[in-house]
Design brief:
8 strands, Rossmann fold, N-(1-d-carboxylethyl)-l-norvaline Dehydrogenase, domain 2, eight-stranded mixed beta sheet, binds nicotinamide-adenine-dinucleotide, alpha/beta
Length: about 300
């Protein structure tokens, strides 16, 4: 299977619209479903923005693609051979919706979940055909980050995984194949970085701006080209061993959530969506920052696509 002729994306919040826009770009007739009319109305705008970003990246348009916005789940699922679930990260809700999906779609339709880290096998227990169920973890924003983690549950077949690898590669993305592990690779690594940064911020070692500057250039820029495993080789394993021997024991090993984050969350200072979080945002600044982020991701992706991978 390359890109499916008809696909369904269930859940149209932060992730669904970008996923739908990318599938449509590659020729799929995508039905984007949500229980909220507001979410679907917002999604139309997000899909339009995603299409502009894909234009800016010179992503080819495969004819025949479209996104329709469906409140009715059964209509959205009708005839779909690939279904991507992107509803909130609650296992009970996901299990219920997976059963609803299975009741409508063909037995050989592939059902993927965009869960950020709920074990695939735990969700699959609710399913009649767990062999066609797989984790497909897109990175946000999904139409711009060309990497998807694929995670088999204990019943998922190799064929389903191979098919998804083909689909991911058909839209020029890289597939990362991994075993089930809480949080999957991307979030395990990202959350290790976030935990350390938040601990340093709480300790007053540096401001949020200095932390961002250091990580963007000293970690992000370098890792975008090299990758951490190659970096260890480049630096020298003896150097890593020497530094890790005194540093690892001093790194944050906080097992709870940062107190600062808990306090800000309680005060509804949730970041860009409420105008205040670890930074404060003046009027109009959120829209400006979001646009700068999209533009930055487009520029850097073009640059990274042009270099020889190391
Ligand atoms: N936001 C991210 O950065 C990100 C990144 C990777 C993976 N994920 C994962 O993707 C999934 C979706 O995340 P999100 O951030 O888009 O969530 P979100 O809360 O922004 O959106 C979820 C949407 O699902 C809708 N919904 C709820 N119940 C539904 C149902 N029964 N049928 C159809 N729609 C329903 C909600 O109305 C909402 O619009 C989660 O599992 C999340 O962990 C999120």
């Amino acid at each position: 299977m390359s890109i499916p002729t008809i696909s369904a994306v269930i859940g149209s919040g932060s992730m669904g619209p970008g996923i739908a826009a990318l599938l449509a770009r590659y020729g799929s007739q995508v039905r984007l479903n949500d229980i909220s009319e507001e979410a679907l109305a917002r999604a139309e705008q997000v899909c339009a923005g995603a299409t502009k970003a894909l234009d800016a990246l010179d992503v080819p348009v495969v004819p025949g693609g479209s996104v329709t916005f469906e409140l009715d789940q059964a209509t959205a699922l009708d005839g779909a051979s690939l279904i991507i679930e992107a509803i909130p990260e609650r296992i009970d809700l996901k299990k219920t919706v997976l059963q609803q999906i299975e009741a409508v779609v063909a037995e050989d339709a592939i059902i993927a979940t965009n869960t950020s880290g709920i074990p695939i096998s735990d969700m699959a227990v609710a399913m009649a055909h767990p062999e066609r169920f797989i984790g497909m973890h897109w990175s946000n924003p999904p139409h711009l980050i060309p990497m998807i983690e694929l995670i088999k549950g204990d019943r998922t077949t190799d064929e389903v995984q191979d098919t998804l690898i083909e689909i991911v590669e058909a839209f020029g993305y890289e597939a990362v194949v991994e075993k089930e592990k809480a949080g999957f690779i991307e979030n395990r690594v990202l959350y290790a970085v976030l935990r350390e940064c938040l601990a340093l911020l709480e300790e007053g070692v540096a401001t949020q701006r200095d932390l961002d500057t250091c990580v963007k250039w000293g970690v992000g820029y370098k890792l975008a080209v090299i990758g951490p495993m190659r970096l260890v080789d480049m630096a020298g394993l003896d150097i890593y061993e020497a530094v890790a021997s005194y540093l690892n024991s001093d790194l944050s090993n906080e097992t709870g959530v940062s107190e600062l984050v808990t306090r800000l969350t309680k005060d509804k200072k949730l970041g860009m969506k409420t105008g205040q979080g670890l930074y404060e945002y003046n009027n109009g600044e959120v829209a400006e920052k979001r646009a700068d982020i999209v533009q930055g991701l487009i520029t850097v992706r073009k640059a990274l696509s042009a270099i020889k991978p190391v």
